[in-house]
Model the fold of this input.
Amino acid sequence: MPGTTYTQHALTLPSYPRGSHLITSDITSQLSTPLEDVKVGLLHLFLQHTSCAMSLNENWDSDVRKDMSDSLDKIVVEDKAGKGIYRHDAEGSDDMPAHIKSSLIGASVSIPITDGRLAFGTWQGIWFLEFRDGKHRRKVMATIQGERP
Done:
């Protein structure tokens, strides 16, 4: 039936180690409303955590993900020596840097849907950036709004 619809999906990402990970297929495989059912619309993804992030970036060369993680670690350093550079340190030396990196990168992305497909640019994919050392089960709220054919 034609018309504008809104659906939400609570998704759970697999546990990923610290680093930058391509998760496009993790996201699309969990959507209970097929993208093919949307003629024109928007997929909005919101990461429900404060120590990891989401981004749109290179989906072909995995070195880009490694370089991104290395660069963020240089920009926002950990206090592994316990010198007290952060007040918030009760959860470990990686926690406060994770919050800072999350604020720098962001917790959400929006991708246009065109004729039932995500309208990525060349080489784009959905990234998940885990900033903590321990593995965590991260939750994403996916909202699809769009016109059905």
